[in-house]
Amino acid sequence: MVINLTQGYNELEAENFYKQEYPYLYRYAMYLIGDEEKARELCQETFIRWFDNSRNMQIVNPRAWLKKVLSNLVYSDFRHRKVQSAVEQRLQDSYLESRSNNDKDILRIEVQDVLSRLKWRDQLLLKMRMSGMSYTEIAEALSISPGSVGTLLVRAMRRFKLEYEGKEANKQDDMPERQSDLNVFRG
């Protein structure tokens, strides 16, 4: 970028001003930011604004002006990074949530598929238990003795497990986390 020095500075004066003020400005930038690269970048931007300012010869305290401009640039940069970080976090959260929802949907579809291949009574028993019904409530709904609910559920679960593992047998190597530790009876 070419700096316009027609506002009263010749090249030597501009260089001397830069060399004189840069160390102070850089230390201040490091104090505010703590990042060397960002401090250099913002110091350069501050001097560009100084030399582009048509009224810089009227400024009584150039160092104070430079520090104020640098402070404003630092705070603007901070706000920009904070907003950018928040947007990235929301996008990441949204992605993870949609991925989690997709994984849950896929698992739900797989479970429904396996359930649909079971006998009607097994499907009903498992769905009732999964919905939170107690053994007594299941017994009343199906008109069976409460003592037989546990046995029927264990058998239904065993058939579900066999169907599920049979469906997943070809995928065991691809998906090692998928194991059939399905136990809906305790808890």
Radius of gyration: 35 Å
Whole-number mean pLDDT: 80
Structural class, from secondary structure content? mainly alpha
Q: What is the beta-strand fraction?
A: under 5%
Q: How many β-strands, per DSSP?
A: 0
| Whole-number count of domains | 2
CA(first)-CA(last) distance: 70 Å
Q: Mind describing the biggest β-sheet? A: none
Count of helical stretches: 6
| Helix-strand pattern | HHHHHH
Q: Which regions contain 5 or more consecutive residues with pLDDT less than 50?
A: none
Overall shape: rod-shaped
Helical residues, percent: over 70%
Question: Can you walk me through this structure?
Answer:
There is one protein chain. With about 190 residues, the protein is mainly α. It has 2 domains: about 10-85, no CATH class; about 115-185, Arc Repressor Mutant, subunit A. The protein is built from 6 helices and no strands. Helix 3 (about 60-115) packs across helix 6 (about 145-170). The protein is rod-shaped. The model has no long low-confidence stretch (mean pLDDT about 80).
Keywords:
187 residues; mainly alpha; Arc Repressor Mutant, subunit A; 73% helix; rod-shaped
Give a short summary of the structure.
By secondary structure, this protein is mostly helical. It contains six helices and no strands.
